[in-house]
């Protein structure tokens, strides 16, 4: 087995954040963020709206531990310094011209990995950009000096060490000392050696002063002073005596401790200045110093989510007054920053990152504390924002605790052709169930029933400010064609029919309508070509010869081509005087023309990059051939014939796009829609001198119905006359969007809406651009829920978007999907149901009013629920709250043999404490699952069974119930008063984490196999430390025997997923994913040996008698929380292994079926490992082999970096593979689209 791993939805979690001028322009501030743990993204903020747009996003293939901006002396821009697990420190430069990152310095200092004695965890940069300090958690500290050589190239010095043994670093900050020797303050504590007396309180926390002597090139530990033992965060203040410009400040640092904040001077002789605060023993989780030209203030946040503003007064270098005011209460943040434009960017600890506008500075706030009149009143948080205004939230799935992919949604009878991924995540009040689907979510603005029946076409027009008509700007006219008439609607405050419009025709339908470059409009009907003048001076008509009529038409900004029923092609051209003249030459074909297309945009301009090319593409009825003709002075000349392998041609359309997988410049493409739902894209190559041809065909399955295509003005930038959007109409509409990120190809995304027959652009002043569509006899206007483009930065939204969000009462732990079409006992429900176990401890001492759940009120209590939701409507169908001392641990739906009744079993712990693990008692509750005649579901408690250990997992097995209790695997049957113990095995080495059987995984989608499993004999058991163990049940002995285990210890982070009878996928908490398989010979021997004596009479390597083989393994860089097997592409018949991570990432493992694909992508991956720049110096093979060597899994993220390489590197790699760069890009794209989204 060989797999390729591709991310489907990258993580939106921001773990680190820093602010700087990375583009080198004073007017634009950028934010460098670390997504997840290993992706660097640079965001730009709009100074007017505060909306963030992405400039670049790259995978670093390593774990980033710290990030800071640095501006060396004489530089006009900031660089990015990164400390990571690579054992190197890297300095990166963002190049805005090419949207790329360049490595300026890469200095090796130690071993790789996130180790406590390897520097990288703490990073602090001198404000003048002369040096930075890189620290480890324990002992190790390195100082680096930044210089420039004669060519102004940045260079980095050798590291200067300032280690101190038996010390632990808690925080590091660089002081503002101007051009004096750089000074760093470190918050340290001594480590207690074995046998050493307990440390005194004065030695528990120290503020240590380090000075870098630039003259002697030496780092000095000057002094240390004891500080409050609870001090946990330092913040440097500006120094007025050293700053050439900026606010006046005392210098030194602020030290935040529990219930106090203290100012410490750089001078040891100056006494600290402290302010006590009633903070309820909470820590400061984030802070930021905002400087203006004349002043500064500090914004900091407590664990409760409450924001405070700190200001101070000083006399020279001495602080005389500290004042803290309550600011607002927001979600708990990891880090924050304030832009010069007054926007607060918050990287949330929970779900959604947010952008706020600062509308007040809490000057009139009554809740304040200062050193002159210190109040003892505690903070009373506000429920509503006062000084902040929420502008935008970036939805994140952080953290995902479980996920499932219901097969129900991919069935044709529910009208869905793509799966939906249901994720459970969030914590506390942010807990929710989110259903995702592929594509763009839209809102329906208007639906109008048309009295004349089903239209045969729809177009929109606007008014040109310079006079005449235009397809751009605000929509003014809507022209609807019916089989025997054409109606014009005028859009104003309301939409009304305009009978006086020149576009209205009482007895003729319209085939084609488009504006020309001079503001006039051409309207093609079966009996005429109507040229409507821009100045309303009249209408000129051209009619075909008697006995013929017009069947098809297409136009550009100055040309029109039509076909008649006698198979003739006629070309019209717009001359300099604004006359539309018929060309003297015609072209006659043998068959009727099914579709015709001209390149060039009807709303474009002659001097645009998308100019007219003298070609026309034609397909005729009944064949599978595309004919490409040139348009010359002597007529039409055949240039190329392109045959298609399957399906009849239905429509053609030209579109000009910039696709880096094809070339660096804008390229003309020909799209062909087939009757079998396949879209084929051809590249148009050549020139006027050499001729044109079609090459590089790329196919994409869109839907089961025939395809129609419409080219509209760009929905991303409607005001740009030289761009367009391709809309493909099938069972649902699709849209081609250009990705403005450098070297990123355009994306074809579905629009999650009903089937639309015709479409056109609809734009208004109050709403973002949307689509006007025709479905049946209704006219519909839809707009996108999220803007798909922003001025200056066009961003393609994520492919997976939430369409349904259900709030949960507390943190979700387990998720189960009940699919109504599978089990007859639940077939009365029209929609799939999601059952969620929610359980979380509640400690009111650490929760503010802004985040308090409504279901608990006492410390050390649990909030546990079992909830059932309808996945289409979001309605709650069932809620089962538990007592405050009861903790829901696991649950399952089971059907016992001999009974058609469904039962729900729930594992309960009484008074459970997590650290250390303890409990008073443990129970298994059995509920009768009852379905009433009206479809309502009820759970009636049948009985309770007390057990000696906490239940960790349930699994239906042969009409009974398998339970994991500590280190015990036990089989229960249903009794009248309690569960009856039938068999057990107490030989498992550690506490059991999950149980599953081949073909079904624990707490997965409910099917008949999961409920009965009458033929299963093998049981896959995972414990908390020793990976997988395979047990076999022998009915003759009524015993379970452990027959195989994994020789490598793994700590499972989610329930293993059986892929087939002998193969299981599992993930561990260190970010590894593995495919484990029981050897075929052993599996066959188990099935053929009725007693199993030959397989269990010996042990191997102090474990089970047989070993499981590891056939695939890779490190994904994040903790995996769920595994699913799903078919993501409708009709493909090919399943992928879907995984989710703790930080909200969704990825897919795609199987490769041919040895040719395996060899090709393995060779490509090896070449890219040496060609792709490693931005933090972490070796790619080493990163993917963390904790265990990578095996048979190819990194799709690395393959996607092929598009970002310069052309010369692409050519070198292609030469080594004996192919071309275009074919490499094509194969990468095809294998992804064939299996995944």
Automatic annotation (TrEMBL):
Residues 863-1202 form the RSE1/DDB1/CPSF1 C-terminal domain. Residues 22-373 form the RSE1/DDB1/CPSF1 first beta-propeller domain. Residues 1-27 form the signal peptide. Its main location: nucleus. It is found in: Nucleus. Belongs to the RSE1 family. PANTHER family: DNA REPAIR/RNA PROCESSING CPSF FAMILY. This is Subunit 3 of splicing factor 3B. It comes from Mitosporidium daphniae. The lineage of its organism: Eukaryota, Fungi, Fungi incertae sedis, Microsporidia, Mitosporidium.
């Amino acid at each position: 087995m060989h797999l390729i791993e591709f991310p489907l939805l990258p993580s939106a979690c921001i773990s680190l954040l820093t602010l700087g001028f990375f583009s080198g322009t004073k007017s634009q501030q950028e934010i460098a963020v670390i997504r997840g743990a290993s992706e660097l993204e640079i965001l730009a903020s709009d100074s007017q709206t505060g909306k963030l747009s992405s400039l670049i996003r790259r995978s670093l293939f390593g774990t980033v531990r710290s990030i800071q901006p640095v501006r060396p002396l004489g530089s006009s821009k900031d660089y990015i310094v990164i400390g990571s697990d690579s054992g190197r420190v890297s300095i990166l430069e963002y190049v805005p011209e090419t949207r790329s990152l360049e490595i300026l310095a890469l200095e090796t200092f130690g071993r790789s990995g996130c180790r406590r004695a390897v520097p990288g965890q703490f990073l602090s940069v001198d404000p003048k950009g002369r040096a930075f300090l890189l620290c480890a958690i324990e002992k190790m500290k390195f100082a680096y000096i930044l210089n420039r050589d004669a060519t102004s190239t940045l260079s980095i010095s050798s590291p200067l060490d300032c280690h101190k043994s038996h010390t632990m670093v808690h925080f590091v900050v660089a002081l503002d000392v101007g051009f004096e020797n750089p000074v760093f303050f470190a918050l340290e504590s001594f480590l207690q050696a074995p046998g050493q007396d307990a440390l005194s309180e004065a030695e528990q926390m120290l503020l240590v002063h380090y000075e870098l002597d630039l003259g002697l090139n030496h780092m000095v530990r000057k002094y240390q002073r004891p500080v409050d033992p609870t001090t946990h965060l330092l913040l440097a203040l500006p120094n007025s005596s050293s700053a050439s410009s900026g606010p006046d400040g005392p210098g030194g640092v602020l030290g935040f401790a529990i219930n106090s904040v203290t100012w410490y001077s750089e001078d040891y002789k100056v006494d600290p200045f402290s302010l006590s605060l009633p903070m309820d023993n909470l820590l400061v989780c984030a802070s930021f110093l905002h400087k203006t030209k004349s002043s500064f203030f500090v914004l900091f946040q407590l664990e409760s989510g409450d924001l405070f503003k700190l200001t101070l007064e000083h006399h020279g270098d001495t602080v005389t007054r500290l004042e803290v005011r309550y600011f607002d209460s927001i979600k708990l943040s990891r880090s924050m920053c304030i832009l010069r434009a007054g926007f607060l960017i918050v990287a949330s600890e929970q779900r959604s990152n947010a952008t706020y506008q600062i509308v007040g500075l809490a000057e009139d706030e009554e809740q304040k504390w200062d050193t002159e009149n210190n109040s003892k009143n505690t903070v009373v948080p506000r429920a509503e924002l006062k000084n902040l205004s929420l502008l935008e939230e970036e939805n994140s799935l952080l953290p995902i605790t479980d996920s499932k992919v219901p097969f129900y949604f991919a069935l044709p009878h529910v009208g869905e052709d793509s799966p939906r991924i249901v994720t459970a995540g969030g914590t506390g009040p942010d807990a929710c169930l989110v259903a995702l689907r592929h594509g763009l979510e839209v809102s329906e603005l208007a639906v109008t029933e048309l009295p004349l029946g089903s239209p045969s076409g729809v177009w929109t027009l606007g008014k040109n400010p310079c006079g005449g008509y235009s397809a751009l700007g605000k929509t003014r006219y809507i022209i609807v064609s019916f089989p025997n008439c054409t109606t014009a609607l005028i859009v104003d405050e309301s939409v009304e029919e305009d009978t006086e419009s020149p576009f209205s025709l009482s007895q003729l339908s319209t085939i084609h309508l488009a504006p020309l470059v001079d503001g006039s409009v051409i309207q093609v009907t079966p009996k005429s070509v109507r040229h409507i003048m821009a100045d309303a001076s009249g209408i000129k008509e051209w009619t075909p010869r008697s006995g013929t009529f017009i069947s098809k038409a297409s136009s550009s900004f100055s040309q029109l081509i039509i076909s008649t029923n006698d198979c003739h092609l006629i070309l019209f051209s717009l001359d300099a005087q604004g006359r539309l003249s018929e060309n003297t030459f015609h072209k006659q074909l043998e068959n009727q023309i099914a579709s015709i297309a001209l390149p060039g945009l009807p709303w474009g301009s002659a001097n645009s990059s998308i100019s007219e090319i003298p070609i026309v593409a034609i397909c005729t009825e009944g064949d599978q051939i595309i004919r490409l003709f040139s348009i010359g002075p002597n007529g039409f000349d055949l240039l190329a014939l392109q045959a298609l392998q399957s399906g009849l041609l239905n429509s053609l359309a030209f579109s000009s796009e910039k696709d880096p997988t094809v070339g660096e410049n804008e390229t003309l493409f020909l799209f062909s829609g087939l009757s079998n739902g396949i879209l084929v894209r051809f590249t148009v190559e050549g020139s006027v001198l050499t001729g044109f041809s079609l090459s590089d065909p790329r196919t994409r399955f869109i839907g089961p119905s025939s395809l129609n295509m419409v080219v509209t003005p760009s929905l991303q930038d409607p005001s740009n006359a030289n761009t367009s959007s391709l809309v493909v109409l099938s069972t649902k509409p699709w849209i081609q969007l250009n990705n403005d990120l450098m070297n990123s190809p355009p994306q074809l995304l579905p629009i999650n809406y009903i089937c639309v027959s015709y479409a056109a652009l609809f734009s208004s002043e109050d709403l973002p651009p949307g689509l006007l569509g025709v479905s049946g006899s209704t006219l519909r206007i839809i707009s996108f829920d999220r803007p798909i483009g922003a001025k200056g930065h066009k961003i393609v939204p994520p492919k997976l978007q939430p369409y349904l969000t259900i709030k949960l009462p507390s943190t979700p732990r387990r998720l189960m999907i009940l699919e109504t079409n599978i089990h007859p006992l639940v077939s009365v429900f029209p929609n799939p149901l999601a059952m969620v176990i929610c359980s979380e401890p509640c400690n009111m001492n650490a929760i503010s009013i802004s985040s308090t759940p409504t279901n608990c009120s006492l410390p050390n209590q649990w909030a546990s629920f079992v909830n059932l939701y309808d996945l289409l409507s979001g309605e709650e169908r069932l809620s089962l709250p538990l007592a405050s001392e009861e903790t829901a641990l696991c649950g399952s739906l089971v059907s016992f043999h001999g009974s058609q009744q469904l039962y729900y079993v729930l594992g309960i712990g009484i008074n459970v404490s997590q650290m250390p693990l303890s409990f008073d008692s443990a129970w298994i509750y059995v509920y009768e699952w009852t379905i009433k005649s009206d479809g309502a579901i009820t759970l009636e408690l049948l009985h309770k069974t007390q057990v000696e250990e906490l239940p960790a997992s349930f699994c239906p097995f042969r009409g009974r119930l398998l339970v994991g209790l500590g280190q015990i695997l036990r089989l229960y049957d249903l009794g009248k008063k309690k569960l009856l113990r039938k068999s057990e095995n107490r030989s498992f080495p550690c506490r059991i984490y999950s149980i599953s059987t081949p073909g079904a995984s624990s707490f997965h989608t409910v099917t008949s196999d999961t409920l009965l499993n009458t033929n299963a004999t093998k049981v896959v058991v995972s414990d908390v430390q020793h990976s997988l163990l395979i047990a076999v049940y022998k009915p003759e002995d009524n015993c379970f025997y452990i027959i195989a285990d994994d020789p490598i210890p793994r700590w499972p982070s989610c329930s293993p997923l059986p892929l087939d009878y002998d193969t299981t996928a599992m993930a561990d908490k260190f970010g590894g994913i593995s495919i484990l398989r029981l050897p075929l010979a052993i599996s066959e021997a188990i099935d053929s040996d009725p007693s199993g004596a030959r397989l269990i009479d010996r042990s191997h390597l102090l474990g089970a008698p047989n070993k499981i083989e590891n056939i695939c393994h890779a490190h994904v860089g994040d903790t995996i929380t769920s595994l699913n097997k799903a078919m993501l592409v409708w009709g493909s018949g090919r399943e992928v292994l879907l995984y989710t991570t703790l930080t909200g990432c969704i990825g897919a493992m795609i199987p490769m079926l041919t040895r040719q694909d395996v060899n090709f992508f393995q060779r490509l991956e090896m070449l890219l490992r040496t060609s792709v720049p490693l931005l933090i110096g972490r070796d790619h093979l080493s990163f993917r082999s963390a904790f265990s060597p990578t095996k048979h899994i190819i990194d799709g993220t690395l393959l996607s970096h092929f598009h970002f390489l310069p052309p010369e590197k692409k050519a070198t790699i292609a030469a080594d593979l004996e192919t071309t760069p275009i074919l490499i890009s094509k194969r990468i794209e095809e294998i992804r689209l064939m299996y995944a989204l």
